[in-house]
């Protein structure tokens, strides 16, 4: 009897799952992005490749190259480099370590 009652129900339809939006990040610098990077990034308190990817809409490899360039110029200062996570701060921030 239980088999007959369940036979009339429709089959469960599975969802297709959540679809994540594709990030359309730039793979090279244009004049506007480069100017924005040179002007704004040295003023950030916390600077990581992830922050640049999020705010500037550039890809990760471009963000890492830009950070190395800014550090070489002295615009930003490296705080910590643990594996692939680089942590920078403003160069003008006073060093409190003795």
Explain the overall architecture.
By secondary structure, this protein is an alpha+beta fold. It contains 4 helices and 2 strands. The protein has helices spanning 2-7, 31-40, 49-56, 60-73, and strands at 76-82, 85-90. It has a two-stranded antiparallel sheet. A hairpin with a 2-residue loop joins strand 1 (76-82) and strand 2. Helix 3 packs across helix 4 (60-73). The radius of gyration is 24 Å and the shape is elongated. The N and C termini lie far apart (82 Å). The mean pLDDT is 84.
Keywords:
about 15% strand; elongated; about 100 residues; alpha+beta; 2 strands
Mean pLDDT: 84
- Regions with pLDDT < 50 over 5+ consecutive residues? none
Distance between the termini: 82 Å
Helix content: 25-40%
Shape: elongated
Largest sheet: 2 strands, antiparallel
Radius of gyration: 24 Å
How many strands in all? 2
Report the portion of residues in β strands.
Answer: 5-15%
* Strand line-up across the major sheet: 1-2
How many helical elements? 4
Global structural class: alpha+beta
Order of helices and strands: HHHHEE
Briefly say what this structure is.
The chain has 98 residues and is an alpha+beta fold.
Write the layout of secondary structure elements.
Layout: H1 2-7, H2 31-40, H3 49-56, H4 60-73, E1 76-82, E2 85-90
Antiparallel strand pairs: 1-2
């Amino acid at each position: 009897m239980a088999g007959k009652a369940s036979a009339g129900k429709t089959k469960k339809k599975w969802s297709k799952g959540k679809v994540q939006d594709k990030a359309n990040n730039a793979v090279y610098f244009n004049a506007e992005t480069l100017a924005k990077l040179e002007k704004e990034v040295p003023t950030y308190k916390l600077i990581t490749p992830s922050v640049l990817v999020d705010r500037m809409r550039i890809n990760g490899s471009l963000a890492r190259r830009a950070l190395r360039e800014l550090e070489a110029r002295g615009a930003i200062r490296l705080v910590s480099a643990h594996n692939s996570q680089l942590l920078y701060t403003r160069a003008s921030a006073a060093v409190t370590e003795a």
